[in-house]
Amino acid sequence: MKRLSVLAAFAVLSTVTGWAALSARADDKPAAAHEKHFDECAKACADCQVACEKCFHACTKMVEGGKKEHVKLMHLSVDCAEFCTLSAKLTGRHSELAVTACEASAKASDACAAECEKFPDMPEMKACAESCKKCSASCKEMVKMAGHKH
Fold it and tell me: What pTM was computed for the model?
C-alpha cells in the first residue's frame, strides 16, 4: 500500500512538472520569433565552412607549387572553417552559446574575406570571400538580434 502511494505521488509530481515545463515553453515567444535568425545563420555558417575548405584546398595546391603568398590565406581559411562549423552547430541547435560563437565567427569571416580579396582572379578565393561576407553579416545580425553588441 505504501508503495502504491509513493508511485501515485511520483506520477502527480511528474505530471505537474511536465505541465509547468510546457507552460514555460509556451511563454517563450521571443525565442520562437528568433528561430528564423538561428536557421539562416546556421545555413550561412555551414555554406561558409564549405567555401573556406575549398579555399584551403586551393591554397594548399598553390603553396605546394611554390606560391608562398597563399600561406596566410591557407591558414585563415581553415581556421575560419572551424569557427563556421562551430557556429553552424550551435545556432542549428539554438544553443545559448551561439552568440559567443557567432561573434568569433564574424571576426574570423571578416579576416578571411579580406585576405581572399587579395586574389580577385581566383574563383575559389572569390567564392570564399563572398561566402565569408554573407556569414559575417548573418552572424552580426544574430548577435544584434540576441541583444548583444558586436
Answer: 0.76
